[in-house]
Design a protein that fits this description.
Layout (H helix, E strand, L loop, with lengths): L3 H22 L3 E2 L11 E7 L4 E7 L10 H17 L4 E4 L17 H18 L6 E4 L18 H4 L1 H4 L6 E7 L4 E7 L19 H13 L8 E7 L15 H7 L4 E4 L11 E4 L16 E5 L3 H4 L1 E8 L2 E8 L13 E6 L19 E7 L4 E10 L5 E7 L1 E2 L7 E5 L13 E9 L4 E3 L3 E2 L13 H7 L3 H32 L3 H10 L4 H16 L3 H16 L3 E3 L9 E4 L2 E5 L6 E5 L5 H41 L1 H12 L12 H8 L2 H28 L1 H5 L2 H17 L2 H8 L1
Parallel strand pairs: 1-26, 2-6, 3-4, 4-5, 7-8, 8-9, 9-11
Antiparallel strand pairs: 3-12, 6-7, 10-11, 12-13, 14-15, 15-19, 16-17, 16-20, 18-19, 20-21, 20-22, 23-24, 24-25, 25-26
Keywords: Membrane, Signal, Transmembrane, Transmembrane helix
Protein name: Calcineurin-like phosphoesterase domain-containing protein
Organism: Ensete ventricosum
């Protein structure tokens, strides 16, 4: 006799699946990105530089907030004096300009007051630092696109208040060239935010398109008309490669950058909480042509920590094609605008841990040391010191550095014999530059290893930094998701097939009796318990079919509905494959938006709710059946094996819902109140709380009404648990017994 709740759940899911499947198939779906049909334009600008050494400043993840005005205040109080001392060729702001969250950080939306903060801060920075506004380049981050239905919408405040928009740079690809005496340094900025700004949390990845990747590659190829040794290509964006999805045809930036001889890619997004040393070398294939110089390494990727909490900025320098950087945490204690501490950036030789990318075994060495010194004080002495780690870090040479240009360039230069520092170890020799100002204050750069041969030192990353920065999360998400689905399919189907086969041949009862009656052998007993647990859990046909239908619903049908972009826009549906929203340019439906961004929703739900729920359903039915095995052993002890075997035969030939005949109610109630069932009910309570927390956070993010009315997400798990608890409860057994 089936439980009425179980039957109701089964018919509910059957009807929902059939209705939603027919509704879904009737909708016109387009799996493409919103935009025009032509090629994306490129915003190009060029600036001259004096000589062949250039430097710029990068700032990322400002997260300006109406509830944290200090972040905008510190841009003026700390960044402006730093820029006045550094005098960079460019200022790059690589995304997440505003926070776009409410005070409790439970929902995301664009706030015009935050963009006004940003615009006012930029004007103040230009005023106090003296930087030309045309040399400021900003791009979107995912926070800057939260809740923006499309570019040009009234909520698209970036298109109004950003520097790029005010200067007419409306393209998602920006190309900047710094032209020196003999070299050209190319900086290409990429905006890979979602074309339709899905609200958080399912807006986490960069989403390049085939069209945009073709534009980037074309722009990189444009500079190949010049000799390769005179052009250095650097790209910047918001998203690291680990959080950048593939294009529609599966193309990725890594291979594109390697093909086009990109030197480095700088980005933000991950903040400084994981690590402030998120560096990664993307290797490229060696050329098989003996006439082509063999590149031993690919391009570097350097992530910058956030301004939001850390107040970090990066000074990036390019010296004869060698790219170096130095990160600075601006101190918050100083209130004086011009209080910028003296900073030293060694531009050559490069740090062998995170900057070398070209072997130089057969090339002539550069016999010079270059360093940039930024200070508000007059510098009277600059000295480079070389240390030998094989000789207890003794100083082996001191090289005085002289100022090259006293007006525009704080570049200090010195000569040495680089041939003297050949070494098989890339960390044997270390370099430090000390600076003394006219007040006698000495400032030293960090002690860093170098290799004149361009050898790369091993850098030991933490496991957390490796996980967030070097793992391709799109691929990992697919592995985690489909391995979970595969496990659940096997978990449901395999024991059902075995149980059906054994019951059809009337061998299930004999198999159970043979293991219960025989003396236990540890290995065989463990295998029996596992097999018996799985088969007993699958023998309630109604609940088993309902679980199968539910898994199909999660795979094919909407998980929930909600306001994907703005509460003033249409309600959209989130599927396992992504969001399905109506196109802002026509009646078509756009599919698969925000994939794999929804991993922050799907993985917790599948791993913390669905999977443990299925296991607990099986466990509750197995726990009830275990009572009858316990009853059999007790009967065997009292009445002998013949009577007990006869009783067990009567018990095991029925499905679990009919196993209550001949068992005393008091014994059943006593066992149902035991510690095993209590533990399982506690597990059900924990799953219910986790499920409620997930649903509540999604209600706050995408709307209470539509999310709460979504059966697959909000209703199904508690209904399954209630039906299972009712079907295996003592009260239900008593009812069936009568």
């Amino acid at each position: 006799m089936a439980s009425p709740i179980s039957s109701a759940i089964f018919f509910f899911f059957s009807f929902s699946f059939a209705f939603a499947l027919s509704w879904s198939s009737s909708i016109e779906v387009e799996s493409k990105v919103v935009g025009g049909e032509g090629a994306e334009p490129v915003a190009r600008e060029s600036f001259p530089i004096d000589g062949d050494v250039a430097w710029l400043v990068q700032v990322s993840d400002l997260h300006l907030s109406s509830y944290h005005p200090d972040r905008a205040d510190d841009l003026v109080r700390l960044l402006a004096p730093a820029l006045r001392a550094i005098r960079p060729s460019l200022l790059l702001i690589t995304g997440d300009i505003t926070d776009a969250k409410n005070k409790r950080r439970t929902s995301t939306r664009q706030d015009i007051s935050e963009w006004i903060q940003y615009s006012n801060s930029v004007e103040a920075i230009v005023k106090y630092s003296g930087i030309d506004k045309r040399r400021i380049f900003d791009i979107r981050g995912n926070h800057d696109k939260y809740g923006v239905p499309y570019v040009g919408h009234e909520l698209d405040f970036f298109s109004t208040y950003s520097v790029s928009s005010q200067l007419g740079r409306l393209s998602t690809v920006q190309s900047i060239s710094l032209v020196g005496d003999d070299r050209k340094y190319i900086f290409i900025g990429i905006d890979d935010t979602l074309s339709i700004g899905i609200r958080g949390p399912s807006n986490l990845f960069g989403h390049p398109t085939e069209k945009r990747m073709a534009v980037v590659e074309s722009e990189l190829q444009y500079w190949d008309i010049y000799p390769s040794d005179s052009v250095t290509k650097i790209l910047f964006g918001h998203f690291p490669m680990s959080f950048t999805a593939s294009s529609e045809k599966g193309q990725r930036y890594e291979s594109l950058f390697a093909r086009q001889s990109v030197s480095s890619y700088i980005c933000g997004h991950l903040h400084g909480n994981f690590s402030r040393q998120l560096w990664r070398l993307h290797p490229s294939k060696l050329s098989s042509d003996v006439l082509v110089p063999r590149k031993a390494k690919g391009f570097w990727e350097w992530e910058l920590g956030d301004w939001k909490e850390s107040r970090l900025i990066r000074i990036l320098s390019v010296d004869g094609g060698v790219v170096s950087f130095h990160d600075i945490e601006l101190l918050r204690k100083h209130d004086v605008l011009d209080d910028f501490q003296t900073t030293v950036v060694i531009t050559y030789p490069a740090d062998s841990r995170n900057m070398n990318n070209m072997e130089q075994n057969n090339q002539s060495f550069r016999n010079d040391i270059n360093a940039l010194v930024f200070s508000t004080q007059q510098i009277i002495n600059v000295t480079a010191k070389v240390f030998d780690s094989f000789r207890d870090y003794k100083i082996v040479e001191e090289v005085p550095l002289q100022l090259i240009s006293a007006v525009d360039k704080p570049l200090f230069h010195g000569k040495w014999n680089a041939e003297s520092y050949r070494s098989a170890s890339p960390t044997r020799y270390l370099l430090q530059v000390s600076v003394v100002d006219f007040q006698g204050k000495e400032t030293k750069s960090d002690l860093r290893p170098f290799s004149v041969e361009g050898k790369l030192a091993h850098y030991a990353s933490t496991w957390l930094a490796y996980l967030v920065f070097q793992v391709e999360w799109q691929s990992l998400y697919m592995v985690l998701l489909w391995s979970n689905f595969s496990f659940l399919v096997v978990f449901l189907c395999l024991p059902k097939v075995l149980s059906y086969h054994m019951e059809r041949n009337a061998s299930y009862q004999k198999w159970v009796m043979s293991h219960v009656s025989s003396s236990p052998i540890k290995r065989r007993q463990s295998l029996f318990v596992l097999s018996w647990f799985l088969m007993e859990g699958s023998r309630n046909r109604i609940l088993w079919f309902s679980m199968v239908m539910y898994l199909l619903c999660l795979h094919k049908l909407p998980w929930f509905w909600g306001y994907a972009t703005s509460k003033n826009e249409n309600i959209a549906a989130m599927y396992l494959s992504g969001w399905r929203v109506q196109s802002p340019y026509g009646p078509a439906i756009l599919d698969k938006l925000g994939n794999p961004d929804m991993m922050v929703i799907t993985l917790p739900f599948m791993y913390l709710v669905v999977t443990p729920m299925f296991i607990l359903i099986y466990s509750l039915f197995a726990e009830r059946s275990s009572f009858y095995l316990h009853f059999h052993r007790k009967l065997r002890h009292q009445n002998g094996p013949v009577a007990s075997n006869f009783a067990l035969e009567q018990v095991t030939k029925f499905v679990p819902s009919n196993l209550t005949r001949g068992i005393s109610t008091s014994s059943a109630c006593k066992f149902c109140q035991g510690w095993i069932r209590g533990s399982l009910l506690l597990g059900c309570s924990i799953i219910t709380l986790v499920h409620f927390k997930i649903c509540f956070s999604l209600m706050l993010a995408y709307g209470v009404g539509p999310v709460s009315l979504s059966p697959a997400l909000s209703w199904a798990p508690p209904l399954f648990l209630v039906a299972t608890i009712y079907s295996t409860s003592a009260a239900n057994m008593n009812t069936e017994q009568r």
